[in-house]
Amino acid sequence: MDASVVRERAADLPREPGVYQFLDGDTVLYVGKAVDLRDRVPSYADPRSARVSRMVDRADALDFAVTDTETQALLLEANLIKRLNPRFNVRLKDDKSYPLVQITDHPVPRIEATRDPDEAATVFGPFTDKGRVDTVIKAIRETYGLRGCSDHKYQGRERPCLDYEMGLCSAPCTGEIDEASYREDVASAVRFFEGETGALADPLRREMEAAARAREFERAANLRDRLDAVEAFHGEGEDAVSDRSDERAVDVLGAAVEGDSAVVARLHSERGQLVDRSRHSLDAPDAEDRVAEVLSAFLVQYYAERELPDAILLSERPADDDVLAWLEAEGVAVRVPGAGREAKLVDLALKNARSGPTRRDELSALADVLGIDRPERIEGFDVSHAQGKQVVGSDVCFVGGSAEKADYRRKKLTDRNDDYANMRELVKWRAERAVDGRDDRPDPDLLLIDGGDGQLGAARDALAEVGWDVPTVALAKEEELVITADGVHRWEDDAPHLHLLQRVRDEAHRFAVQYHQTLRDDVSTVLDEVPGVGPETRRRLLRRFGSVENVRAAGEGDLLDVPGVGEKTARALKARL
């Protein structure tokens, strides 16, 4: 879209607040907001940055929606960015991937780490260190005996389970503790997660000291390590965030940008004490003032659907004055402290943003070496079968370098001993669903095929036939060679981008084998239920006929040709199948 087209389209826009979208076909490239749509959009005829210039060049259409107020435009923009995931916006990724701790809404609640909490549960987090969360939950259970079993397993028990014998549960299921006493223990656990570190640290410390006095030094050392994890769980929770008595809830935000990714660390306080911390990843395309733009995007996208705190402390002033005006209208105090306790807390947030586990390097490195856009979303494909029988395919998904299991899919394929044809069928199935709009998942940025040049060729043929344009590579086992359209590549063994592809490949393989084994076991179960058919006869039947369906279709005479199958067994097979 050239400058004259932008001006021509803008001239038809209303002079009202709203949001606008630059489109490439049906794909949304960029979402923006405006106080006056007709006044704002013409600025794209003279792009202010290389990123915006690339976006406008690629766009072929412009769409808009009018709102009643500027605030509605601001919030609609945030929701559209999160829903549509436009490539050229600063985008807050889904923070549900961080572990949470939930205490369920049940007369006898259970405690567990989860990434998908129950709607009615009491939830704490998100936290960034899954190992520390697991350590703390185990310490909670050993100290207060909270159950970790599902409600289904809890119901109808006649005797305590192994967790009771191991000291991890007080067994309310069988009345070893009454419900009122159990709920008191739950309340103690809740106090810990709300910021009262001593609710768990104090009993652990007493137990550690008792073990040391009894010269149980190994146990004392284990308790010491657990105590360290517990005391570090809430971070620097002894420092007050704010001494302003009218600010009960305060968030501290620090942002760090590296390459085309950013991290915003959030520290949260209630009544002057830090009770939570979390880290959030964002895509951050090139911008003039990157940290300021990242903070602007984070503020509106994060808080549009959450309760606002009384105050927000920031490492830098946001780039968008409309965001500040919205927060001020909502009664939120926004400060960029220069000194004192608040400045130290902002420094702590910055330290959190600049450290800890991220996938920025491997994704950026993979993009660079393949010459593609940053592959935030990767899907991996593999096929599994037994000599052409029970052929299945897997389609796993990684987002931001981590497995997104809710987006895994699997497919029963045509039985045949042809890996190339099987891969072609699997990838064609995925491509057709995407092109027809029958797949509810976003399109991936990269497809990874488990196999060599033949499997990659089959996959690319399927994509070309359907007309689905997605970068595709293959990773061959043993020598770990990466095959692309340009040739075969051998990357360094310690290359982070190779490790990423290996994780995707190995997970696709695991998921395919698991499905194949499930089908194979189902087959075995059906045959094993037939009187007179043992493991050896079952193997002979499957070796002779290939599948249960073929055994079912065989005549009695054909069955009698199988060693170990007599007339009685043959009749039983025909009757059962």
Describe the structure.
This protein is of the alpha+beta class and 577 residues long. The chain has 21 helices and 20 strands. The strands form four sheets. Strands 13, 14, 15, 16, 17, 18, 19 and 20 form an eight-stranded mixed β-sheet that branches. Strand 1 and strand 2 (27-34) form a beta hairpin. Helix 15 runs parallel beside helix 16. The longest helix has 33 residues, at 496-528.
Instruction: Work out the number of β strands.
Output: 20
Percentage of residues in strands = 15-25%
End-to-end CA span? 64 Å
Level of helix content?
40-55%
What topology does this entry show?
Elements lengths: L2 H8 L7 E7 L2 E8 L2 H4 L9 H9 L2 E6 L3 H15 L6 E2 L7 E4 L7 E4 L7 E3 L5 H15 L6 H4 L7 H4 L13 H15 L4 H16 L3 H17 L15 E10 L2 E10 L2 E11 L6 H14 L7 E4 L6 H9 L3 E3 L4 H15 L5 H11 L6 E10 L2 E11 L2 E2 L5 E4 L6 H17 L10 E5 L2 H14 L5 E4 L6 E3 L2 E3 L6 H33 L6 H11 L2 H6 L2 H5 L6 H10 L1
Parallel strand pairs: 8-11, 11-12, 13-17, 17-18
Antiparallel strand pairs: 1-2, 1-3, 4-10, 5-6, 5-7, 8-9, 9-10, 13-14, 14-15, 14-16, 18-19, 19-20
Function: The UvrABC repair system catalyzes the recognition and processing of DNA lesions. UvrC both incises the 5' and 3' sides of the lesion. The N-terminal half is responsible for the 3' incision and the C-terminal half is responsible for the 5' incision.
Pfam family, one: UvrC_RNaseH_dom
Protein name: UvrABC system protein C
